[in-house]
Design goal:
With about 270 residues, this protein is mainly alpha-helical. The protein contains ten helices and four strands. The chain has helices at about 15-25, 30-40, 45, 50-55, 115-120, 180-190, 195-220, 230-245, 250-260, 265-270; strands spanning about 70-75, 110-115, 160, 170. A two-stranded antiparallel sheet has the order 1-2. A two-stranded antiparallel ribbon has the order 3-4. A hairpin with a 5-residue loop joins strand 3 (about 160) and strand 4 (about 170). The two termini are about 20 Å apart.
Length: about 270
């Protein structure tokens, strides 16, 4: 997961205005007619799909995957049609809004670009911290204690890290902290440890490892220390690592995490300088 600066990169004003008009009409309808109205105008959020994809270079906002996540969708971060209580395969006790966030159906701020693995798993789950207030209007959504990491919140992506086994873990020491629990909830709801994602992360880590080991071996070859070809090969390997760190690259956060966890300080600097 990498940060998506969505708020500073909104869709066109024309699309924003269209969404506001649809919301205005939706708010006038009785409850029994809302779902049908939302389905009738579902083409609206599809109009935003290309814009959403451009902000992540075509990658799923949650998994940072390309082909692994296959078909893409416009995800409603807060579910529009129903909400489900998260109990299956989850030991963390949470609350949830008993009503769907239908009033956000046409709010561009609620859209996320999502791969099918995640979208299927996420379903209508949107866990909240026990005792959290429940938003009833757009101005109140940031007052909720959301249980899921949000790629459009810069601080949220800091809580997620990856082990050498390819699995996603909390990046905080206190396993009982709310931040750690949010990671566990996100792993469960987003299916972040799906086998295909784990395999892809391990492959990225192994690629980083091979390149780093090659750099270290070349640098330790004292007999060829002044060989231009050796120097250029070291440069090439460093450049390849930097390409893997580029936000345009698939699973760049995994590569960054692996490099930053290396013991060699000069290797860690590749991810920071």
């Amino acid at each position: 997961m990498i940060f998506i600066d969505y708020k500073n990169n909104p869709p066109s004003q024309e699309l924003i205005d269209e969404g506001r008009e649809l919301t205005k009409q939706l708010l006038l309808l009785p409850e029994i007619e809302r779902k049908k109205y939302i389905e009738k105008h579902s083409d609206y959020w599809r109009k935003l799909e290309a814009h959403l994809a451009s902000l992540s270079y075509g990658k799923c906002w949650y998994t940072e995957a390309h082909d692994i996540a296959s078909v893409y969708h416009v995800d409603h971060f807060r579910p529009k049609n129903e909400t489900k209580k998260l109990t299956k395969d989850c030991k963390i006790e949470t609350d949830n809004n008993p009503e769907p966030y239908w009033w956000l159906a046409f709010a561009w701020e609620n859209y996320r670009y999502s791969g099918s693995i995640l979208n299927t798993s996420k379903n209508a789950y949107f866990p909240l911290r026990k005792g959290s207030m429940i938003a009833r209007k757009l101005d109140d959504v940031e007052k909720e204690w959301t249980g899921l990491l949000d790629p459009t919140v810069e601080e949220d992506v800091l809580w997620l890290t990856f082990g050498e086994d390819g699995k996603a873990y909390p990046a905080c020491d206190d396993d009982l902290s709310w931040e750690a629990q949010r990671v566990y909830l996100s792993v469960r709801v987003y299916n972040l440890n799906a086998p295909s994602l784990i395999d892809a992360r391990v492959e990225i880590q192994n690629d980083c490892k091979r390149r780093i080991n090659k750099i270290i071996k070349l640098m330790s070859d004292k007999e060829n220390n002044y060989n231009v070809l050796i120097r250029d090969e070291i440069k090439d390997q460093i450049q390849e690592l930097r390409k893997m760190l580029n936000p345009k690259s698939e699973l760049s956060a995994v590569a960054k995490c692996y490099i930053l966890n290396r013991p060699e300080s000069f290797i860690r600097r590749i991810a920071t300088v």
